[in-house]
């Protein structure tokens, strides 16, 4: 809980906003329809998502390691961070707006992140 509040406190103006933002971390994993996946995860990003899943599986569980995994995949596929981060956010939370993606991944845990990402590729 402390990690979640720490992530959200700078983005929120009230306790209610923190509580609303915290729901992302405590609700069940989202269930995406094929239409939602098609609308939020471009087909050209799927290979990058698969490479990210692979990189995360072998990465240590830390913000720095997750950040390095993103950088590796971004460089390999020659894409910018928003092109990958937005689909990852959608896969993890069914929204494209979250605190720093590597930080939210640490809070969710590697196993949960890999599981949620794998459901959309």
Please, could you describe this protein's structure?
- This protein has helices spanning 2-8, 15-26, 34-40, 46-58, 63-77, 81-93, 101-108, 110-118.
- The chain has a single domain (31-118), classed as Arc Repressor Mutant, subunit A (Orthogonal Bundle).
- The mean pLDDT is 93.
- Helix 4 packs antiparallel against helix 5 (63-77), helix 4 (46-58) packs antiparallel against helix 8 (110-118) and helix 5 (63-77) crosses helix 7.
- It is mostly helical and 121 residues long.
- The chain is 69% helix and 0% strand.
Features:
mainly alpha; Arc Repressor Mutant, subunit A; 0% strand; globular
Mean pLDDT level: 93
Which runs of at least 5 residues are low in confidence (pLDDT < 50)? Answer: none
In the CATH hierarchy, the third-tier topology is known as: Arc Repressor Mutant, subunit A
Give the termini distance in whole angstroms. 30 Å
Based on the coordinates given, report the CATH architecture. Answer: Orthogonal Bundle
Q: Oligomeric status of the shown chains?
A: single chain
Structural class: mainly alpha
Helix content: 55-70%
Number of H- or I-type helical stretches:
8
Main sheet summary: none
Number of DSSP E strands: 0
Rg of Cα set: 14 Å
Strand content: under 5%
Order of helices and strands: HHHHHHHH
State the name of the first-level CATH class: Mainly Alpha
State the shape. globular
Number of domains: 1
């Amino acid at each position: 809980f402390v990690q979640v509040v720490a992530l959200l406190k700078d983005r929120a103006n009230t306790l209610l906003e923190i509580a609303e933002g915290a729901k992302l971390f405590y609700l069940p994993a989202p269930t995406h329809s094929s239409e939602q996946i098609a609308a939020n995860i471009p087909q050209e990003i799927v290979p990058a998502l698969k490479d990210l899943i692979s990189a995360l599986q072998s990465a240590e569980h830390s913000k720095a390691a997750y950040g390095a995994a993103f950088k590796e995949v971004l460089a390999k596929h020659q894409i910018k961070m928003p092109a990958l981060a937005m689909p990852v956010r959608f896969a993890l939370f069914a929204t494209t707006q979250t605190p720093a993606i590597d930080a939210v991944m640490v809070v969710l845990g590697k196993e949960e992140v890999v599981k949620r990402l794998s459901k959309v590729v």
